[in-house]
Every structure is written in C-alpha cells, then in structure tokens.
Amino acid sequence: MSNENNPSPNSLLEWFRQNHRREFDLQGEIARRAEEIFRDVTTQLPKGQIQPILVGVSRRPEVPRLGIVMNEPGMVFVGTMARAILDSLSAEFEGIISSRIANEVIEKKVRDVISQQNPTQGLKKCPHCQSDIRSISKYCDQCGKELEE
Questions:
Q1: Which of helix, strand or coil describes residue 90?
Q2: Over the chain, what is the mean pLDDT?
Q3: Is 134 helix (H, G, I), strand (E, B) or coil?
C-alpha cells in the first residue's frame, strides 16, 4: 500500500538513488565495508537466527540530557558502521589530497596564512626549484638548498 506521501520502500530507495546519486553510492560503499568488518565478528548466535539491533535515546531523571541506549548487537552495529564510514571517508580524502589540484590549494592556503601572520614578511621564489618561500628564509623548504642573500 503506497501513495505519494508514503512511498513503498522500493520506490523510496529508487527516489534516493535518482535524486542523491553520490550519497546512494556512498551508502553502498559503506554497506560493503561494514559487511567486510562483520565477517570477522564471531558470535554465539545459531546460524540463520536474527538478533535485533536496538538503538535508541532516553532521558534518565538524574541526567538533564538525552543519552543513547543500545543492546550488544546495537553497539557492534554502530561501531562497525562508524569504522566503515571512517574507512570510506579516509579513502576519499587520500584521493583528494594526493591530487595536483589539492596540492595547489594547500600551497595557496599556506601562502595566505604566512602573509596574514607576517604581513611585512613577503615571499620570494627559490632560484633552484622555483617554490615560494619566505623572504627571510635561509634555506628552501622544498629543495633544501641554501639561499643567497
């Protein structure tokens, strides 16, 4: 039973895939990584038995804020998903950081920070490798060559 306000799970998943492709692909990657981690989990559950994952929030009278409560499978699930998400994000960041564009952005940011902290301290080019260096430097930060004054 489905209508526009309450789509069936299949149509909701299809909507998610069509409208949020990057997030859809990312959740697939995270699920794949989580399954790899779960393969190493040993448990006393009989094969084929389903154990509910319980994760919720509650407010205890002695504590003025909400707290997260979960059963043991919930803890394993949350920890596994967190690890899978971090692994996936780390892989993406490694790809971004190793790109040429990222290096250019980082170098520009370093120059901006240097010029903001020491506005009177300008930059110059290393005569050996052409890297930007502080005008008061005695050695190049990139190639290590001694600079002439």
A1: helix
A2: 78
A3: strand
pLDDT in tens, 32-55: 888 887 777 776 777 778 888 888
Distance separating alpha carbons of residues 74 and 66, to the nearest angstrom = 17
- In this structure, how many other beta carbons lie within 10 angstroms of the beta carbon of residue 20? 12
Closest CA to 53 of 76, 80, 82: 76
How would DSSP label each residue in 44-81? SPPTT------EEEE--TT-SS-EEEE-HHHHHHHHHH
Residue with tokens 């697939």: 28
The rounded distance, in Å, linking the Cα atoms of 17 and 19 is 6
Is residue 53 within 8 Å of 77, Cβ to Cβ?
Answer: yes
